[in-house]
Amino acid sequence: MASKEPTSSPEKQFAIQKLFVKDLSFESPNAPLIFTEKWEPTVDVNLNSNAKKAPQDLFEVAITVTITVKNGDKTSYLVEATQVGIFGVKGFSDEEIGPLLGSFCPSVLFPYLREVVSEIVTKGGFPPMLLNPVNFDALYAQHVQQNDAAKAN
User: Fold this and answer.
1) Helix, strand, coil share (%) of the chain residues, nearest 5
2) Are 119 and 21 in contact (CB under 8 A)?
3) Does the domain formed by 13-129 have CATH 3.90.226.10?
């Protein structure tokens, strides 16, 4: 009687292959006059992430932030930055891939994005822009919930 060996799933592998800034833009349309005015800024931050399959067992995950800072009715500066990671992902189920790419990978990338933004804003002559921490787990859960609701309708 032949014994049947249990089928084992492939070993899970996750690795950061590459981290880089894919896009970076800084504009200060009202400089140098903006520096002579009382500094009472209003800040608008828009953050997005996306993931796409790359060749082999690789995925490209990107987070993009667009920040518009106004002083009164004048734009002080506008920053747009995209931080990208290439991640090696192997042996994960479809149910595991979603949270990995939609939450964990953006959490890895965010500190790099935060540093890029702070540095470019400082080099533009403004006080550092310190992005607040982001709960990517909650954002991913909200995204899944919205997709499920859209499918139900």
Assistant:
1) 35, 40, 30
2) no
3) no
Collect all residues with Cβ–Cβ distance below 8 Å to 86 and sequence separation of at least 6. Answer: 16, 17, 18, 19, 54, 58, 59, 60
Q: Are 79 and 120 in contact (CB under 8 A)?
A: yes
What is the Cα–Cα distance from 29 to 8, expressed in whole angstroms? 59
Q: What is the pTM of this model?
A: 0.86
| CA separation for the pair 66, 115 (Å, rounded) | 14
Helices (H), 18-135: 94-99, 105-123
* Buried-state track 3-19, b at ≥16 Cβ within 10 A, e below 16: eeeeeeeeeeeeeeeee
Condensed to tens digits (0 to 9), the pLDDT of residues 24-80 reads: 999 999 999 999 999 999 999 999 999 999 999 999 999 999 999 999 999 999 999
User: What does the domain layout of the chain look like in residue ranges?
Assistant: 13-129
Pairwise CA distance, residues 40 & 126, whole Å: 12
- What does the CA dihedral 35, 37, 42, 47 come to, rounded to 10 degrees? -10
